[in-house]
Automatic annotation (TrEMBL):
Source organism (scientific name): Varroa destructor
Name of the protein in its database record: Cystatin domain-containing protein
GO molecular function term, any single one: cysteine-type endopeptidase inhibitor activity
Protein family per UniProt: Belongs to the cystatin family.
InterPro entries: Cystatin_dom, Cystatin_sf
Cellular location(s): Secreted
SMART domains, A to Z: CY
Length: 169
């Protein structure tokens, strides 16, 4: 019987400890250190979220339409050309396509970036087995174009860049 009393007593001590943890205060009425840490972490996270919303490239969730200035950035042009070259290889075309225009672009921040683009491309005279060179690979006939909707996923800090989907017409 004493063992049972001991177990009940130990159980009461555990319940009392749970009560103290639930109230996040020690017997003197002060907050527990882990509670202070958790509250501080919440403040930092919410502050960071506020800063992130001021910089639209850092927000997470939905796709965000890029403005004309962002579409003209060299980095996006390189990403578009990567997509055009990858599409040409996937379609087993003999020549590279050059990007003539990015008509629309959207970006989503995930564990990296998803970038959706509408591209106007035209076939060049550069063979697909050679690297694409912007200065050398000019369109054969810029009046013959096609539109490609592409989705590129990238994590530049891990050197990952892949064409996730495409549709050309």
């Amino acid at each position: 019987m004493s063992a049972i009393c001991f177990d009940v007593s130990a159980s009461n001590r555990i319940d009392a400890n749970k009560q103290r943890l639930l109230h996040h205060r020690n017997p003197e009425g002060r907050m527990q250190p882990h509670t202070i840490f958790a509250l501080t972490a919440l403040v930092v996270v919410y502050s960071s979220a506020g800063l992130a919303s001021k910089n639209p490239r850092r927000t997470r969730g939905e796709f965000r339409q890029l403005d004309a200035k962002e579409i003209e950035e060299e980095e996006l042009g390189e990403l578009a050309q990567f997509a055009a070259t990858t599409v040409a290889k996937a379609e087993k075309r003999a020549f590279h396509d050059a990007v003539l225009n990015i008509t629309e672009a959207h970006q989503q921040t995930v564990a990296g970036w998803n970038t959706k683009m509408k591209l106007v491309v035209s076939e060049t005279s550069c063979p697909i087995h050679n690297p694409f060179d912007v200065g050398q690979c000019i369109p054969k006939n810029a009046s013959i174009t096609r539109q490609c909707d592409v989705l590129v996923y990238e994590r530049p800090w891990e050197h990952i860049k892949e064409l996730t989907s495409f549709y050309c017409h």
